[in-house]
Sequence to fold (217 residues):
Amino acid sequence: MGLRRGLSGVTAYVRSAPGTYVWLGILFVTTVALHHMPPEFELHFLRQRSTNLHELSRAPVRVLVASAMWIESGHWAPYAFLYTVFHAPAERWLGTARWLAVCASAHVLASLIGEAVLAEAIRDGAAPPTAVDTLDIGVSYALAGVIAVLTYRIAAPWRYAYLAAVLVVFGLPLAAGPTFTDFGHFVSVLIGLACRPLAAGRAAAWDPRETLAGRRG
Fold:
């Protein structure tokens, strides 16, 4: 009885965030496919689906979509955890359409802005010409944007502690030894924060004090 109830709860939770778990399912399939590729072919395959300058100049729409369907590291389990902790609550709160708008905005705009900065660095000689083929693939920009927009799901003053933690997590790498990926992640956070209008009219902000009081009661 307990197991059946638990499975029913898991099923209900997954159904409440269909976009999150369909996307996660696609990532599972593509990750399994990567594990069956020879290493030398895998790199070539991913580079063709990367939002690098070379591919963006050839087929921008194709690579912007394709790059969100693969995980460069080949490790799916950490993303299953992160999607459940961040994407699923955001989709349940915002609704699938608005959640997808945040994901798309962070992924597309951060990719384009990051590559524009890289192109300028190549022109100035701050980055080598070979950087046009830099591997830039994965779902982390969308994830960073969603993590940021969840700031508005939390009631003050807890909201400010959460926001500070987000800025530290994504800002420290940028300050310590920045890469273009670190820059893209921080831009994604700013885009997520700029998506506040999408949170208008959604459920009231979550207050941890009410949750704790309810459990004690």
About this structure: The chain is about 70% helix and 0% strand.
